[in-house]
Amino acid sequence: MPAIRSVQPGYYRIPLPTALTDSTHGVMRDFELLTVRVTDADGAEGVGYSYTVGRNGGAIHDVLAREIAELVAGEDADRIEFLWNRLWWDLHYGGRGGPTVLALSAFDMALWDLKAKRAGQPLWKLLGGNDPKVPCYAGGIDLYLPLDDLLKQTEGNLAKGFRAIKMKVGRKLLSEDVERIAAMRRHLGDGFPLMVDANMKWTADEAIRAARAFQPYDLTWLEEPISPDDVAGHARVVREGGLPIAAGENLRTLWEFRHLIASGGVTFPEPDVTNCGGITSFMKIAHLAEAFNLPVTSHGAHDVTVHLLAAAPNRSFLEAHGFGLERFIARPLQIEDGFAIAPDDPGHGIEFDWQGLETVRA
């Protein structure tokens, strides 16, 4: 039995080279990185992580250090479903969502990394294996970039090998969003995959109006047009807006995804492995989407999520965007002609520069 010997959390604040802004979260100057290293009795180690856009990192770290470490000490690291359910219910009363689920997500990721390393397999194969080449898009946080800078950013992403692009919408005037989308469509040409992301900016009526205004530009999807809690509104936007809708990065449970999917409120379910309950929950969400004949996409943590989409037959696009983490990992995501390549190293393959991270410890 690979008994859990230690759970070592880490808490870091990674400054961004340039402050980023979207329609809801305001100005983001740094990201909080929460890591966890799980070591078993044989000395093997699995690594997991979560992140925030600048707040609540201390609460997540405390859940890992004070609660999870105590609850799992000495347990069998291979019993991932058992440990997931134990932590969910033991922490449920004070933590159904929020920082607790982000902490659980990081811990669950570490268990899967450890399990794959012990098996000598890359994570995507351990999870079933489908196709290591996953379509990938570059997600920019660029709402207030001047148009010329937006197009320059796009050119930079094309030079990196991306063959699909996402841009932010949700400016004060809808006409400004339309103008920027039209310019991007002209720049990229017909048929090039282009997504837009509103970051929960609008009401359902506003989102429907925006979706109809965006229809001429052949968008792959409109992402997070309204609050994630407005399930009925999502269903209205899908029915009346005339565009595919991606949503889910702010949902925290399998059951929230079930409600949104069954209500007809999403076209591209979009879990984030760092906040939806980890790899265990992400794969259940992917299979739930498959049962409804829906493609699954992703948000965040692209270095890990490439494995998960590589294991899912209904995968669509992997999102890739840099939060400054690349300089602290050994091998950043590999992009080849529009595809992210799931690595063949045992586990998820992320190797953090722990010494470098010490310089940004929170």
Short overview:
Helix content is about 40%, strand content about 20%. It contains 13 helices and twelve strands. Helix 2 (about 80-90) runs antiparallel to helix 4, helix 8 runs parallel beside helix 9 and helix 10 (about 255-260) runs parallel beside helix 11 (about 280-290).
Architecture overview:
The chain is globular, with a radius of gyration of 20 Å. It contains 13 helices and twelve strands. It is α/β, with parallel strands linked by helices. β8 (245-247), α10 (254-262) and β9 form a beta-alpha-beta unit. The two termini are 35 Å apart. Strands 4, 5, 6, 7, 8, 9, 10, 11 and 12 form a nine-stranded mixed beta sheet that branches. Strands 1-2-3 form a three-stranded antiparallel beta sheet. The mean pLDDT is 96. Helices cover 39% and strands 20% of the residues.
Count of strand segments: 12
* Average pLDDT rating: 96
Q: What's the alpha carbon Rg, rounded to whole Å?
A: 20 Å
Task: Please report the distance between the alpha carbons of the first and last residues.
Answer: 35 Å
* Helix fraction bin: 25-40%
Helix and strand element order? EEEHHHHHEHEHEHEHEHEHHEEEH
Number of helices: 13
- Taking pLDDT < 50 over at least 5 consecutive residues as the criterion, the unreliable ranges are none
How much beta, percentage-wise? 15-25%
Looking at the structure, what is the overall shape?
globular
How would you classify the helix and strand content by structural class? alpha/beta
Largest sheet: 9 strands, mixed
